[in-house]
Fold this sequence. Notes:
Layout: H1 2-6, H2 11-25, H3 27-40, H4 56-68
Keywords: Heme, Iron, Membrane, Metal-binding, Monooxygenase, Oxidoreductase, Transmembrane, Transmembrane helix
Main location: membrane
Subcellular location: Membrane
Amino acid sequence: MLNICSASSDPPNITIERALAELINHQDITKKAREEIDSVVGRSRLVEESDIKNLPHLQATFKEALWLHPLLAQWP
């Protein structure tokens, strides 16, 4: 029970690291996500929360990363 309660403290960092590792291992997906970001947001500014609704490929990429590496499966 302690693992389930404490699971929310560190795993977001681990999930982000694993998502980035998946992107590194799948360059074709990284290229598509990059092209989508460049076309919607451009190169002159950072992605903002309001941009996310216009980035369906990026949303799908991170949903897939969460499916592959769920938060509760990462506790010791």
